[in-house]
Predict the structure of Deoxyguanosine kinase.
Amino acid sequence: MKSAPFIAVEGPIGAGKTTLATMLSQELNLPLVKEIVEENPFLASFYQDIDEWSFQLEMFFLCNRFKQLEDTGAHYVQQHSPVISDYHIYKNMIFAERTLKGSKRDKYRQIYHLLTDDLPKPNLVLYIEAELDTLMYRINKRGRSFEQDMDPAYMEQLIADYKTGMAYLADSPNPPIIIKVDAEALDFVEHPEHFRQIVNQVKEYIT
């Protein structure tokens, strides 16, 4: 890897992105950028009425992530210092393309590109793949109140959207290296040897 690693951990809701990113940050002694989730004031309303609240929700996430990654670029990427994040900015489009419609989607696309086209992008992505039952179990286990009415059909579609989104990143200009983490085979929380496998894969690209 020619430049300092900018690592992102991605996957659908409940995949374990923040958990894995935190574990890797500690193991590799890298600064961690964590997305703002629970602070979003539109989350509870969104899960009750997706069509009504999706634009407000997605704009809140986009603006906050833009600010975080703008700072990340100034503090780490431009200084050629490695850093890890528990999201890739493209996740905004993965969600928005599913939840927004018509003129709101068109407006969002324009704003997204205006804000993000010149942001630093990860050059290494760990993509956690998990099946619906695993995601629903983890969502219920972590007990966030606003996620308790999560629609399995929405989650099923999100799994498919993530696969499409990762394929898009792989074919984009200057694509990142994408490491797939099979959450059905690798329990990186309960089994240290599974986590060690992931660490060893990451080290192949950053050392």
Summary: The chain is about 55% helix and 10% strand.
